[in-house]
Amino acid sequence: MARFAVEWVFGEDQEGRLAVRPAHREYLAELAERGVLLASGPWVDQSGALLVYEVADEAALREVLAADPYTRAGVVAGTRVHEWQTVTGAWL
Prior knowledge:
This protein is an alpha+beta fold. The chain has 3 helices and 4 strands.
């Protein structure tokens, strides 16, 4: 399994994002229950979010991201994906 840190930058359509947010959070809760999503949350200024996933590989991550209601609604303006080599911490 591989871990990925994903940084999202939200687009200008805050109203659209807030409308789809309940579906987005439900989707993330399902991923967390399955152990796919380790942590997530928006920046305090609501400009974007950080999400940490554990999946088989980057192809699997891309599938997870593509199925997210935020992605499908087009409210994410930018995505940065980094495979993350965890060395220390409570998740290990």
